[in-house]
Request: fold
Amino acid sequence: MANARYTGRLGFTLIEVMVAVTLLVVGVLAVASTSALITRMIGEGAAYGRAAAVGRGILESILPNGCAGEARGDTTVGAVRVDWRVTRGAVASEVVAVVTIPAAARRPDSLHTARVCPE
Reply:
């Protein structure tokens, strides 16, 4: 029995290894592209949060005095631009703030919000 040859198959063929490596590479690339997308979305969410906070701050600073008459203005806080206006209506005044944030390789995004000031 010491001289008996072992005829069982050991290991993998070259084709099996190549298919396994290809599947592994496709999976790793899918995970990498997904993580890049998630990172970009988190960054955009933070930018929208900052823009909303700046817009809310501008509205809250205008509301105590701004409802008395018509006015308009603009300001820039960091990279966030805010254009605001107060228009007087028959029943109420409207305070509008348009917040524009820069976006990488895209058009700027705007957040439009308004409050009505009772007379």
